[in-house]
Amino acid sequence: MEKKYDELLELLDNKKIIELRQKLINMNTADIAEFLETVPSNEIVVVFRMLPKELAAGAFSYMDVEEQEKVINLITDREISYILDELFVDDVVDMLEELPANVVKRVMKNASSETRDLINQFLKYPENSAGSIMTAEFIDLKKYMNVMQAFDRIRRTGKGKETIYTSYVVNENRQLEGVVNVKELLLSDYETKISDIMDTRVISVMTTDDQEQVSNMFAKYDLLAVPVVDTENRLVGIITVDDIIDVIEKETTEDFEKMAAMTPSERPYIRTGVFTLAKNRVFWLLILMISGTLAGSILLHYENILAAAPLLVAMVPMLTDTGGNAGSQSSSLIIRAMAVGDIKTRDILKVFWKEIRVSIIVGIVLAVANYMRIIILYPDSEMMALAVSISLVATIMMAKIIGGTLPMLVRIIKLDPAIVSGPLITTIVDIGALLVYFAIARAILGL
Amino acid sequence: MEKKYDELLELLDNKKIIELRQKLINMNTADIAEFLETVPSNEIVVVFRMLPKELAAGAFSYMDVEEQEKVINLITDREISYILDELFVDDVVDMLEELPANVVKRVMKNASSETRDLINQFLKYPENSAGSIMTAEFIDLKKYMNVMQAFDRIRRTGKGKETIYTSYVVNENRQLEGVVNVKELLLSDYETKISDIMDTRVISVMTTDDQEQVSNMFAKYDLLAVPVVDTENRLVGIITVDDIIDVIEKETTEDFEKMAAMTPSERPYIRTGVFTLAKNRVFWLLILMISGTLAGSILLHYENILAAAPLLVAMVPMLTDTGGNAGSQSSSLIIRAMAVGDIKTRDILKVFWKEIRVSIIVGIVLAVANYMRIIILYPDSEMMALAVSISLVATIMMAKIIGGTLPMLVRIIKLDPAIVSGPLITTIVDIGALLVYFAIARAILGL
Fold first, then answer.
1. How many folded domains does chain A comprise?
2. Which of A67, A192, A294, B89 is positioned for an S-S bond with A188, CB 3.0–4.6 A?
């Protein structure tokens, strides 16, 4: 896969284990994971076992689930235990959600009872909720501590935590009272009380909040971590920015896929099988193909008009394509603006009104261009040019209004706006455009 | 804009300044900025001046450029100076890039000469390069220092730095030698030498690297900050994760816009004017409309065939729409995979081969469904059904091969693959689909 690992693979082939090990130890864990993915299946464990334990666990956490599965199937129970101890619970949960049941069983068997309880609790949160992506490894302080005691606690308990840069202040009921950054601790005297430097304007999320909402908060407030609380404001976990970047990437890719009329896939393109790719694409194509035949029936229905004025047929692709394009522009903008939180459903009337005005401007520009094109190419077709141009304005207005508001209506009924794909808009607008076109053509040309 | 600020606005209206000030002081800076954007223009400065200086500068950094401009035009030179001192250079540069020339002049006049030099240097980096988004406020250490000295330096110089959690070790030529996280400092003895705990496997970027590349590195390595070096490995700045989240959001929105055949806009939808929106959309619609007329000419050219077999016309929208949809699916997947770094241009043959196989499966499924639909709806049309179904397979194959490889070819010639929009693919595939359709129909139906 990656040329840059050829040298390492050669060392492995030639059994130059000590030299290989030395090189691996000096690499970044994410790169070691990438290298392991290029190693032939039967040798992964060889390489995995030559790494120092901590590095092996670190690399494991960066591997894709299918590679993780291979490794789990080849290592001992004891090694599994060790890895589970080193991993953050949220990473373990991510992995378990995608592993086959028998592998999950083996993993759970080797987890410490404390980890197992945590995992079970995390697995209960709905998919894509803040609860499902949080981690339980954070540092908590009490407000009566002073800075010295806080540092002590960080030094003592910080090693396995996902971040040590933000600590959370909780009361005896584990309710969240404030946050303190290491920055403030470092810049304060050792005797200062935590209650004096903690920030009580805590930005927190609920376990049930959607992960997209959470990632928009990171973007807005420039956060490194956010605390997750339950309905009684008890601190149950934190979400760190590195996990949020993965969430943003995954959510965006899903939006891209839905907006191009596909079922979202779990894996990167290059590692998805041909049958899965075909399966993800065929459903919507089939639905849209069948709806697309409606447009065909309209053409067939006006057969005699088309026979009387063949030039009318020639304008159909231009008209329907432009309608589809104009509608997709609007739907893409609106879906994206809703995803990043720039537009809320209550803005629907504003969007409606804006799209009307934009579509009038765009429609008139295109209609004028089109009118001139037709009378230049086909002189003496002024009435035809007029009919086509009026249809064009009407089509663009319809397309932009549907494109702008349909995703919002979909969100209002609690579905994902991204299912309003460009292709779906195109299919809907095609039908409307043809009906309008023939009505106008008949009226103007007297057919 | 936001209902939640109604209470604050009422306080302002009723001139309850002290109460308003008290409430603002307890708010997050990002929220204060959001509130300021809802305040009527003539009162922004009133509110701005009631804030403690530091909070005012903080809120300023979160405001949109147009609001920043309003504020700058209303405050004194002295106040500008103060804000410039408080802001990070990268934020100042972002702002200056969008302000009108006369305002830029006034801002530069009030910057300290040191800041002015930095700004000028930063403005020289190409747009969207690592250099253009980095900040010069970082903590540098020497490797002969010990942990105690490092903490001293962090305490002394840390206040105005964008992050104090990662420090960079440089030699006497300012070349980057390693990184140390506060985490390691906290977990080490005071006498430990920096050279013993620094990580020399530094992941760094060049000033000229593209920001998209940089953001993919953050995603891959879970970074909080990355050092930026010049061609001689001298440390010139750092990029922090909060800025990267903004980059990711902006780049993705641009991709969405390009892929829906629009010129990317600088501002959120809700704040973009109707004329700008229309201008951003009309260019590609016009280009595509004119190309779309080619498909119309093909229909006109085969006028006599259509007259002989009217059912053929009825299949045109289904055929061209399906082709466009199938092609957009592939182009969306490939453009996204390239954006997140999952696919490189050298994978083009793999993609080509994968798309061929996927398109055969998808094509056959749709062709069979379509064949059955036609012979059920129009009995005795087996040959017609056959012609349409074969055309469908050919169209889908063509669409997916073009959709999969065209974005990669565009990248190979150094353009942005996202310009291969769904609408563009649709227009190209329309023409090919019609040519294939008529060729096959003539051959099979003997027209």
1. 3
2. A192
Contact between chains at A342 and B270 (C-beta distance less than 8 A): yes
Structural domain contains residue A129: no
Looking up residue B64, the CATH number of its domain turns out to be 1.25.60.10
Q: Is residue B59 part of a domain?
A: yes
Tell which of B293, B381, B395, B420 to mutate to test the A interface (max A CBs under 10 Å): B293
Q: Are residues A278 and A416 in the same domain?
A: yes
Closest CA of chain B from A129, distance in Å? 20
- Radius of gyration of chain A measured on its C-alpha atoms: 30
pLDDT tens readout for residues A102-154: 888 888 888 888 888 888 888 888 888 999 889 888 999 999 999 999 988 98
Instruction: Indicate whether B301 and B417 sit together in one domain.
Output: yes
Residue A233 sits in the same domain as residue A345:
no
Which portions of chain B are predicted below pLDDT 50?
1-2
Domain shared by A426 and A294, yes or no: yes
3-state secondary structure (DSSP) of residue A251? helix
Most distant pair of Cα atoms in chain B: their distance: 94
Average pLDDT over chain A reads 89
Are B375 and B385 in contact by the 8 Å Cβ rule? The answer is: yes
- CA B264, CA B177: separation in Å to the nearest integer? 40
**Domain range enclosing B197:** 139-240
Q: Quick check: helix, strand or coil at residue B351?
A: helix
pLDDT in tens, A254-274: 999 999 999 988 788 888 889
Q: Write out residues 368-397 of A within 8 Å (CB-CB) of B.
A: 369-370, 373
Q: How far is CA A106 from CA A48, A81, A120, A383, B3, in A?
A: 19, 10, 14, 76, 52
> Is residue B415 located within the same domain as residue B277?
yes
* A413 and A289 in a common domain: yes
Mean pLDDT on A83-94 = 84
ipTM: 0.82
Is B365 in CB contact (< 8 Å) with chain A? Answer: yes
pTM for this entry: 0.82
